[in-house]
Amino acid sequence: MKKMRRNGGLTALAALVVLAVAGCSAETHDETADAQAPSEIRPRAVETMEVVEGRLGGEVRVSGLVSGTREADVIAETQGRILSVDFDLGQVVSEGDVLVRFDDRTERLAMQQAMELRDGARLELEALERQAERGTVSRAVLTSARAALRGAEVAYEQALRTYGNRTVRAPIDGRVASREAVIREGNFVTQGSRVARIVDTTRLRLSGSVGEREVRFLQEGQEALVNVTAWGANRLEARVVAVGAGSDGQTGSFPVAIEWENCCGDIVRSGMSASAVVSTEDMTQGVLVPTAALRRIGEADYVFVVENGVVRRTNVDVRDRFGPRAVVTNGISVGEHVAITAVSRLRDGDAVQATMVGTSEDAL
Q1: Higher pLDDT residue, 149 or 17?
Q2: Cα dist from 157 to 45, 171, 299, whole Å
Q3: Could you tell me the domains of the chain?
Q4: Most buried of 94, 225, 335, 348 (most Cβ within 10 A)?
Q5: The pTM is what?
């Protein structure tokens, strides 16, 4: 009887264990099912533009640095100890003004000696020519005397140049933009040393560059508006004076030069940053799309058209581009909306929440 009760108790205990395990299994199954249930996919937020018909064209923007149309690095063409310095940073100088003097006593004596030798050779030749008229001097002697005079003249010109190089002069009108630290009285300066830089800012130049898609719309003589950062919002009337015939070997961009008369005085200086806008004529007409909407795989261009909250990948043929807009043919019609943001992350059929920000003519 006791044995039956013991067996009955074990049987009841086993039943309770089975029920507990089953309950835990059910809970675990429910949690796993919840974890594996697909989460709700939220639409991706994108901005769109409405496709319209229009013309390419507008503005080419050029950025770069300002410089004077005439700038000169002053180089010492001699060497020696500086006797005096007659200029300072920011000073206005005229062409020919003395900037630096070296001790020139030896060079002056050499120049005077060469001048005397030249004058002596000239007098000797004149005497021989008078004798040659009387037939008392041979042609060979006369030829030798002429050669001697030419040699003496060359020697004098060289001595005069050496003497002149002992005084460094301003090569152009302008203002001193920089003065080298070594240019001090008593310092020894070697030949070829930089003395100063002089900038003529009466006429200014913007040196910048543009890409291969923009350069074809630029040409000499086009009007431009320049904005110098330090000058503020005022735009200065300017003109394109040069467009590079080839690209820069390192950047691949094409150099452009724009010039204007300096009406700002000392406010605009060489080395300041500036930008210019060159207006271009209207060009290709057709269906416009923002270039921000365009993507490419291999040789195929495509856009994402937004319809009823879903994007549809559509291939297009790009006819022409200019700045932020392109003219396309085939695949898209006026009035459709194209995604211009998150384009690299979109896939055909993705759900999106679209916000229209303008038309394709408004693309910047």
Answers
A1: 149
A2: 80, 20, 68
A3: 46-55+284-362 (2.40.420.20), 60-68+201-280 (2.40.30.170), 104-165 (1.10.287)
A4: 225
A5: 0.62
